[in-house]
Every structure is written in C-alpha cells, then in structure tokens.
Amino acid sequence: MKLLLKVWELMFKNLYQNHWLANYNKDFLKSDFSAGLIVAIMLIPQSMAYSMLAGLPPVIGLYASTIPLLIYALLGSSRQLAVGPVAMVSLLVLSGVSTLAEPGSDEFIAYALLLSLMVGVIQLSMGLFRLGFIVNFLSHAVISGFTSAAALIIGFSQLKHLLGVSVEGENVFVMLFNSLRRIGEVNWITFAIGIASILVLLFFKKKMPKFPAPLLVVVGSTLVVYFFNLEAHGVSIIREVPGGLPAFSIPGFSMESISALLPIALTISFVGFMESIAVAKTIASKEKYKVDSNQELTGLGAANIVGSFFSASPVTGGFSRTAVNYQAGAKSGLASIITALLILLTLLFFTDLFYYLPNAVLAAIIMVAVFGLIDVEEAKHLFQIKKSDGWVLVITFLATLLTSIEAGILIGAGVSLLLFIWRSAYPHTAELGYIEEEGVFKNIDRYSNAKLFEHTLIFRIDASLYFANLAFLEERIRKEISEKPDINRVILDFSGVNAIDAVAIDELEKLMNEYEEAGVEFNIAHVKGPVMDYLKKAGWDKKYQGKIEFLTLQQALASSKGSFHVS
Fold this sequence. Notes:
Layout: H1 2-16, H2 29-53, H3 58-63, H4 67-75, E1 83-84, H5 87-97, H6 106-128, H7 140-157, H8 159-163, H9 172-181, H10 188-207, H11 213-227, H12 255-287, H13 293-308, E2 316-317, H14 319-327, H15 334-349, H16 359-371, H17 376-385, H18 387-402, H19 405-425, E3 429-435, E4 440-443, E5 451-453, E6 456-461, H20 470-482, E7 489-493, H21 502-517, E8 521-525, H22 529-537, H23 540-543, H24 553-558, E9 564-566
C-alpha cells in the first residue's frame, strides 16, 4: 500500500511540476493526434503478433497496448517513447513461463500476468530507490550479441506458422533441421501468404517507411482468406478475438510461482529497460531535453504493475514504434494516450474483423521486425576497435543460440564482468621519459625521443589501486628496478589513480619500506585529493613527509639532482 501511495505521490508531483501535461502546448495537438493514430495502426497488428509469440492469446497484446500506455504517459520522462509489447520481451515471456505451463493455457496466462506484476515491482523499486545504474553492468557488447541471437531465435520460432507445420526444437539449429525434415508437409498456401506478406513489408520498409504496411497485409490477407475460403484448405487463422475492455483482476500468486519466475522477471526488467532507455535517450538528445533513468524505471514499473491487473503482458519501450512515433511528429505523451484510446475503441467495436487473420501474417510481421535487430556491423566495429569486446559479443551470441535466452545473457554478462575484473587486476602501467621540446612526460615505449633521468625511475599507474591489482603492480615495479641496478630513486605518478583501498596502502607501504632499507627512495606525485585523504588517515603525511606531496613530476625531480641521458 505504501508503494502504491508513493507512485500516486510521484504521479501528481510530475503532473503539477515539470510534466508535459502541466505545460501542454495546444499547438502540438495536431501532431500528437497524427502520431497517436499512426502508432495505433502499427501497434494493433504488432501487439497481436507479439502476444502470439509470447504464447498468449492475441487479445492479451491488445490489452497490453491500452492501460500501460496511459500509465507510462503520466509517469515517464520521455515525450516520444512508444510503450507496448515488444518481440524481445515476448520471447522472454514464452521462454520463462513455458517451463511452468503449456503456452496458451489458462495457467500459462495466469503466470504471464504474475510475471507482469513482478517485472513492474522490480522496475518500480529500482526507480524509487534510484538503482538505475545497475543496468550499466550489462555492456553494449553483451546487449548487442544477445539481441542478435534473440532476433534469430524469435524469427525461426515463427517457422511453424510460416510453413503451416509444427516445428519444435530446443535451439535454432534443431528447429532448422526439423523444418527441413518436414518440408514435404508444408502447407504451400500458408507459406505463400507468409512470403507475400514478408515481401510487402520489406518493400514498404525500404521505400515508404512511414506507410502502415503491417495494417495493409493484415487487411489484405484477411480479405483473401475470407473470400477464397482458405481456412478449408488448411490455412491457420486467429479466429475469435474477445471484444470489450480489459476487466480488473488480481494476478494469482504463491511463493513457489514467484520463486520460479524470479530469474526471468529480473531478465525482462533489465533487458526491457535497456531497450527502452536506449531509444528514449536517442530521441531526447535530438529534441534537446533530459530523460531521467530512474523516472523511466518508475514509469515502466508502474505501467507493468497496473497493466497486470488488466490482463496485460509485460511491456517496455520499442525501437521501431518509438521511431515511427517520433517521425510522425509526436511532441508529448498525449500521442501515447491517443494510441491507447484508439486501441480501446478497437477492443470495443472491431475485434470481429480479425477472425480470418492468418497466423502466417502475424509471423511475417514478427520476422521482418526482429531480423532488422541482427547487427553484423556492430560486431565488425567492436573487433576493429577492441577484440576482447568483439569476443564478448560473439560468446553472448553463441551462448544464447545454443543454450537459452536467460542463460545466454547471464553467460555474456559473466564473461563481460570477468573481463572487467581481469583488466582491473592487470592495469596499464608505463615508464615515463621527458620530451624536452614539448616539456611533457610520456611513455618511453611510445615515444622514442623521451629521455630518462639517471638513477631515477618514473613509473605511472593508470588505474585505481585495490587488493586485487597490488600484486601485479608490485611485480612490475620489482621487474623495472631489477633491470636497472643503478636506480636509487622511484617516482610514482599517481595522476591516473582515482581511488585506493586500505589493503593497497598497506602493501604499497611494505614495498616502499623494503626498498628504502635497500637504498631506493620512493616519491609520489600527482596524488588526487580523495586518495591523499586516505593516505593521511594511514599516517603517510608523517611517515613520508616531503615525499608524497609533489604536485608535479617536475617538483619531485627538483627535490634531488639528476641528469638526462637518451634512452
């Protein structure tokens, strides 16, 4: 109850302070209405298709395109983000819930609605407690690899509707093999309808991207099936779509079901938000306004929570719909409200028109939408810049294809995290020399004209120091000193050290004391304020007075005499 009160408090705070509704410009009305209409035309067939992808009745997709849109428009910070069912989240719903119940069954629907509630609670809690930064631990390489693999899985999962035969398999490769095995059983009329729809969608996507091609193929195929009685020839159709507004109901739950759904709920919460915030920030930067990550989490969370009480599957902001919404001239959240109202009208008066809609057409809409998410260029780009990031993408891609959606993203995130730990445990370091012409100190491995000081080693550390990388740093310093037996002074350049922990201070102190007993003096320059604070707490300002306060390397060098020689 306190959580709901907090949501309402936030809603009214937004409405009467900086929210678009409190400062609405009437000149935007025409643009918002036009955008809302166009997105509604696009969303009706898409939402039904994505609901089918999730293993849910098509009407659930329509429900998910009403109440959640209204809630997000009131709470979200993006003015153009088009919220609703998306392919990625739909596949995650199918992947997670199908382990608990048969897709399409009443039990499956009940689990899906509970999943909406759980996703909403997770996102809302993260928003209210300002935990939006957590999603930053999913690197772009992981998301790109996961998205490309998921796009393939989604696309090939629609083969059964495109071919008119049952095609099952635990991964993409098995599905393709089973499809080839059953090629003789293909319903060629169904296949022709699906391929024709794909060709039409691709043509308009390339030549006239603003044209509502999904509506065209929906209307055209429905009329063809109806007038030529193709249902009698084995063409699978949607059949009855229940009309009327979504009724209020409370999702049933138990601790066992919550525990079983928690992993997929967390995955949807993070992946859905990543997709949403990425496109929201892109549009906001073009329109020169700020999108707040935590407010986005709050808006999406509240949309999913309230939607779950009105039979809505999980929703998030979609790339393609948001792009269409923006290109159509949307200036505020009113466009989303208009979209939701138009879909409510469809539920009230027009659901009977979808009876003869072929499943192959919805499959075609899904396939065209998701195959555009496969990003080969991003993989090439990452390999060109940094191979390790490229391999993270490839590992995530293959893991998702060969295992499962949830396992794939967890493996990718795990590899990315291990790579981060490895980099921090083995940071970049450099021996510095002096370039007289420029008056600067540079890495001697990169600048052959950098000159060294006699009997002095200048050593730069380009990372924060903590317990895991001190052993590597100690080994590097010992190696450098051992290779220069005439060294009697080491100057550590701390310009790249932003933080230090207690273990690092203690280990560094032991190293310095050991070498000072052997006649090698340590000085430190460029110590930043927060790092100096910790050094003072460790008593270094007294133990090493006059040795750690140098503001520049020149000051440290001037404290004793040295001479240049060419390295």
